Amino acid sequence: KNPFHIAVLAGDGIGREVMPEGLRAVRAAAERFGIALEFHTFDWAHCDYYAAHGQMMPDDWKQQLTGMDAIYFGAVGWPATVADHVSLWGSLLKFRREFDQYINLRPVRLFEGVPCPLAGKQPGDIDYLVVRENTEGEYTALGGVMFEGTEREIVIQESVHSRHGAERLLKYAFELARSRPRKHLSLATKSNGIAISMPWWDRQAEAMAARHPDVAWDKHHIDILTARFVLQPERFDVVAATNLFGDILSDLGPATTGTIGLAPSANLNPERRFPSLFEPVHGSAPDICGQGIANPIAMVWSGALMLDFLTRGQGAGRAAHDAILAAIETVLREGPRTADLGGAASTTEIGQAIARRI
Amino acid sequence: KNPFHIAVLAGDGIGREVMPEGLRAVRAAAERFGIALEFHTFDWAHCDYYAAHGQMMPDDWKQQLTGMDAIYFGAVGWPATVADHVSLWGSLLKFRREFDQYINLRPVRLFEGVPCPLAGKQPGDIDYLVVRENTEGEYTALGGVMFEGTEREIVIQESVHSRHGAERLLKYAFELARSRPRKHLSLATKSNGIAISMPWWDRQAEAMAARHPDVAWDKHHIDILTARFVLQPERFDVVAATNLFGDILSDLGPATTGTIGLAPSANLNPERRFPSLFEPVHGSAPDICGQGIANPIAMVWSGALMLDFLTRGQGAGRAAHDAILAAIETVLREGPRTADLGGAASTTEIGQAIARRI
Ligand SMILES: CC(C)[C@H](C(=O)O)[C@@H](O)C(=O)O
Ligand SMILES: CC(C)[C@H](C(=O)O)[C@@H](O)C(=O)O
């Protein structure tokens, strides 16, 4: 396809600061490997838009994004102005659901040059992928309050898991595991406590495992799984999880590699019926916003995942991805560094240093 | 009260191996501080009982436990014979609910002599209490499957939170925070994703905070909270959480202190209408059972929490608790050590070493 159309939505807070550096790297890699890209910037899906219009996105947001191959997304949320659940459910979570981005792929990797908070771990000891269900499960606004305002007040919150949803998540995760040298999958569960949905997830995984006999797999209750992310990260290769458990594991995992300022994510509609979305795991970080010190690496790495996804099968995207990753590795090893990694470099300086090495 | 009646239920697996060492320490401390205890051993709430009777406990389990002041509990679960959800919902989770043990108190502390998996942390850097709601929330068997066996199959899982339940948990946690030098409380939430129950929990916490203006508090989404347990454990003092989030945090926290083999828990009915239950956080560990290498310290420490709770206000229980803790500290610092801490000592050797120092 020529060119690929990329929607650029920088969002709020440090999303706006890291986006230019992400674009710088993506442009450099695309140029080097001959991938034609056309960028389309949209000035919505942020809290200033909400302040002006009372909603996060225009009514015709879907039409405006028609024909886009990917969405390159910064971060959303400015709680001082708009409550988080309003800004998030009005933008990011809408994209994930309405564009059926049912895979949230989140690589976790320890890099040379990044001090590891886990004692004695070396690059290579932490290197896995969290595959998170991204459209259903625990994230719902279903349920309600009864006897409100009285002593008997009771709240019901519902989770919704579909066979369609679980099967496609597990299929993707098992196939991904199969494609990797270690061919191993771990399932996050809590079937000993959450008595309806989690035993059911276990059964879905057993059925999918039977169809992938070449993939070794195991199940971990989410409590002990978080402990093992700290004590035995070497065990993990591909980790499949529901929406909530994947959310937790994909913040915890990056924390064990030193900072969540590096962690990228790909919100994928693998069938490409809808645009996929690429964004850092970190949020808009109001606390450090405006100082130009945010680490842009998660944004840059998300861009690498985007190029890889776009041109799958062609090779150029994979090469571009690898070149960006190599540049990130070099910069992490040799510097410069932002404050979260103990340095004093600005967001722009990191972005330039990476782009120079692509 | 004289004597206190203690029900002893060793359960399955390593529960049976660590219980004698727990009793050894509790007896030694009770004797030294003049606390009269009477132990009552019950041979149920384990999977062998299930194999013989088709249920985990006799029909009259409540009557049998009438008059008990506390339940000293090993660990339950033997998945090779009985599915975990059957053994757990038929015993431990029944106690928590039917004896209204609504507080699950789980201290997390880094000890001298225990290698910390977090680089550069010293004893004192990790020292907080997880206060987990223990009777409701995400742990339910409510919900069901629709369109079963078809492609449209859908599963609903319900969580139930009551104002009664949230208020008493938060009240306990805020008062506990107030009683500690740092007077700080952190709430685990996920109000940006779980859209009904979690914003509601936030509001309950805000209301309770208003009644405790001398306690400083903050909220953390569960994803970033797990990251902060790894990156900034010094921030935490008292951490209040729902059933599921408390479950996760009270495995992750101990993992950051080197092993979950040390972590104790107190399942409290603070009003003493029903017996409270004291158990290690670790489970029955079938994988290491039978070798005599399990670390009994979590069981011993749980016994210390039991003595403290039993004699609250009298002083002797607190002294007994502190003496046990001091003995644990000494043994952790000087050895002997079990395999989980890199030693070769047996369960009994550790138990004897602790008892000798009380
Ligand atoms: C902001 C929030 C709704 C979001 C989530 O929980 O999915 C974020 O934490 C993430 O992981 O992308
Ligand atoms: C065994 C299991 C049901 C239990 C729980 O999840 O509560 C355990 O993990 C715990 O933390 O006590």
From TrEMBL, chains A, B:
UniProt catalytic activity: (R)-malate + NAD(+) = pyruvate + CO2 + NADH
Alphabetical list of SMART domains matching this protein: Iso_dh
Obligatory cofactor(s): Mg(2+); Mn(2+)
One MF term in the entry's GO annotations: NAD binding
Domain spans labelled Isopropylmalate dehydrogenase-like: 5-354
The keyword Repeat is annotated on this UniProt entry: no
EC numbers: 1.1.1.83
Keywords linked to the UniProt accession: Manganese, Metal-binding, NAD, Oxidoreductase
Keyword Oxidoreductase set for record: yes
Superkingdom per UniProt: Bacteria
A Pfam family hit: Iso_dh
Top enzyme category: oxidoreductase
Family: Belongs to the isocitrate and isopropylmalate dehydrogenases family.
Protein name: D-malate dehydrogenase (decarboxylating)
